[in-house]
Amino acid sequence: MKRTPLIVGNWKMNGLPSFWQELAAGVAGITKQTNAELVICPPFPALSVVHAAIHAGAEKSSVGLGAQNVHQAEKGAYTGEVSAPMVRGCGCDYVILGHSERRAMMAETDEIVAAKAVAAIENDLKPIVCIGETTRSDMDQALATLEKQLRQSLQGVHIKTGDDLVVAYEPVWAIGTGVVPTAADLAVAFPFLRKTLANIYNEEVAAGVRLLYGGSLTPDNADEILAVDDIDGGLIGGASLKVDSFLAIANAAD
Ligand code: PEP
What we know:
Helix 2 links the parallel strand 2 (37-41) and strand 3 (63-67). The chain has an eight-stranded parallel barrel, surrounded by six helices. The chain contains ten helices and eight strands. The chain is 40% helix and 15% strand. Helix 1 packs parallel to helix 2 (47-55), helix 5 crosses helix 6 (139-153) and helix 6 (139-153) packs parallel to helix 7. By secondary structure, it is an alpha/beta fold. The structure holds phosphoenolpyruvate (PEP). Residues 10, 170, 175-176, 214-217, 235-239 line the site of phosphoenolpyruvate (PEP).
């Protein structure tokens, strides 16, 4: 099955309004230079600024908008939280869930991630479910961790087609460190993830899910990493904060 390459920028907690506006306008300006689908996930207060920038001059922008998190409840007394209907109402198509920083710092468990993914799908958002082992270990151990996280983070998450879901494999030890897995290890991990998805759903659904690699992806290593079978794109932190490096990675994906 043909899957459109997907390049997602996770801006994390960076920037201020003028930076957000400029970077979003820059990303909107490069869409014709790549066949990859581009998605920006800015901080919550930037959603409307980024939405306006990517839609300037176009009824329907070809840059997608995503949130970095949502709460699993639809509404209510959850001070400081943001719901799936809210971000959908602000124009989001995607939401990153279970990023390792939230798992580590906000104590998000697989069960919470699954509840959030259910809320996302009910609200017409595509969840980008993040999984990854914490420390660099031997492959068998890593695969066991990944299978457990994937199964638990997708517990009760019903999808109609594979296009309703994105899974990002981000080894935690590779995030922001400049250290990346070998292409050989990725060539074992990614087909394994697709096989696991086929066991959870079925072959057809699994064949449609886009699998992203994340962790210190840069223009220098993107060609080798994104050429690995079953990797359909990247979830990018640091390198998504500059238009040039974001575009270079997108070009490696297509
Ligand atoms: C991330 O945090 O999702 C990430 C991949 O970050 P970086 O690209 O900076 O390693």
